[in-house]
């Protein structure tokens, strides 16, 4: 049965090795790859999936890709889609945990990626234009979009801003009950196994990790690593730029505080050097795919002193623990979301939710642009402007595949 989905999975793979710029830019690439190039979903469905995933904790772009697979082939294809999407980034970041100490960190050059932020802006402009045309149709959606732009731009680093804007957008379009009538949909049966599995893993991991800590179990690092990473994947809102400071505090700051009161704890606590952690946080932004793949790096670094086999195990633990809760949550709550859409109050909310998403995308474009050199007579400023305009035009007016545009941008960075 999977044979007929091979073309789709190939597209997911090409998307995974060219998806730069974080979750906001990822939705723009999805628009090109899965809507325009090959219509696996409609623009409206993709915006709805993205908005829904922003209401949940975890990796939103990963959850959105998983839902596209779920729509096409149910849970089996959703799982395979998830694995294809995360594999390249997680393998690269896991490998980097082995290579880090063989490389002079001061000589790490990422100049070939210097025009990637401009590329991400071009993709975001394209996605914003596409989404604007189908989501902004009346006064209330204009107001929601403008509020979303202002709030997202000034509060971009606040983890609660995205879900809050989406909820408020849905509430705002329910102030009028006349524009969108009741739409009846036959409710489907809810499968409870995955939310029970999510909760059981959460409780067992937490209990076991606490017992291991209190009783000072030998070789308890893998247990603590799984619990810490699974907890972060279950609770973090706001994407990778929120996850990475949490990991930095957990693995690089907290151990030093513990050592002050318990010097004998050294050797049995996960402790990642601050310089190593910040290097990993920098390199994950220079590779394509989900930013949550930083967990593959931290997992490897957490167990590097236990031997190569344990370091590989650490990479696997980090990868599984960070993405498993995202998958279980989205596959449980999405059928509930579809059931709720039979009620007019939820159906009307979609209008405001989509308007809020457009505001978030436009603000993300502006937020990234503020760190790009665009004003000036130097060559980099002119090239940045050219990359933004060219990327948008190629996406909007040609059928050139998105991966080719990314490759061209990397080559441009190499020569300039």
TrEMBL record:
Membrane topology type, per the record?
Multi-pass membrane protein
**UniProt subcellular location:** Cell membrane
Query: According to its record, what are the GO cellular component terms?
Result: plasma membrane
- Looking at the UniProt entry, the stretches that span the membrane are 12-35, 77-103, 115-136, 142-171, 192-209, 312-337, 349-369, 381-414
Sample GO molecular function, one term: chromate transmembrane transporter activity
Q: Which InterPro entries match?
A: Chr_Tranpt_l_chain (IPR014047), Chromate_transpt (IPR003370)
> Which keywords fit this entry according to its UniProt record?
Cell membrane, Membrane, Transmembrane, Transmembrane helix
Similarity section = Belongs to the chromate ion transporter (CHR) (TC 2.A.51) family.
Protein name, as recorded? Chromate transporter
Species of origin reads Flavisolibacter ginsengisoli DSM 18119
């Amino acid at each position: 049965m999977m044979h007929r989905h091979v073309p789709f999975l190939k597209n997911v793979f090409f998307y995974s090795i060219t998806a730069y710029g974080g979750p906001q830019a990822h939705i723009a690439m999805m628009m090109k790859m899965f809507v325009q190039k090959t219509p696996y979903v409609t623009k409206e469905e993709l915006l709805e999936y993205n908005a829904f995933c922003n209401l949940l904790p975890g990796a939103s772009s990963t959850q959105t890709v998983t839902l596209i697979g779920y729509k096409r082939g149910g849970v089996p294809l959703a799982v395979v889609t998830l694995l294809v999407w995360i594999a390249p980034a997680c393998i690269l970041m896991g490998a980097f945990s082995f290579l880090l100490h063989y490389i002079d960190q001061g000589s790490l050059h990422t100049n070939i990626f210097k025009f990637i932020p401009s590329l991400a802006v071009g993709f975001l402009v394209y996605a914003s234009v596409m989404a604007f045309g189908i989501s902004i149709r009346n006064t209330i959606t204009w107001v929601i979009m403008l509020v979303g732009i202002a709030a997202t731009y000034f509060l971009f680093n606040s983890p609660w801003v995205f879900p809050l804007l989406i909820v408020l957008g849905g509430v705002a379009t329910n102030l009028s009950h006349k524009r969108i009538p009741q739409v009846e949909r036959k409710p489907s049966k809810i499968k409870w196994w995955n939310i029970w599995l999510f909760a059981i893993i959460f409780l067992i991991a937490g209990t076991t990790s606490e017992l291991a800590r209190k009783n000072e179990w030998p070789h308890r690092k893998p247990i603590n690593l799984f619990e810490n990473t699974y907890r972060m994947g279950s609770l973090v809102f706001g994407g990778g730029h929120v996850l990475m400071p949490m990991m930095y505090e957990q693995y690089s700051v907290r151990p030093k505080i513990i050592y002050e009161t318990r010097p004998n704890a050294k050797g049995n606590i996960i402790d990642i050097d601050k310089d190593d952690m910040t290097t990993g946080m920098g390199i994950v932004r220079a590779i394509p795919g989900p930013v949550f793949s930083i967990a593959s790096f931290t997992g490897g670094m957490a167990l590097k002193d236990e031997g190569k086999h344990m370091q590989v195990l650490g990479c696997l633990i980090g990868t599984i623990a960070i993405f498993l809760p995202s998958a279980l949550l989205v596959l449980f709550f999405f059928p509930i979301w579809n059931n709720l859409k039979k009620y007019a109050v939820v159906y009307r909310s979609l209008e405001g939710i989509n308007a809020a998403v457009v505001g978030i995308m436009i603000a993300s474009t502006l937020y990234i642009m503020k760190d790009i050199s665009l004003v000036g007579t130097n060559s980099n400023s002119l090239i940045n402007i050219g990359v933004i305009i060219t990327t948008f035009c190629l996406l909007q007016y040609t059928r050139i595949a998105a991966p080719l545009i990314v490759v061209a941008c990397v080559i441009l960075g190499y020569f300039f």
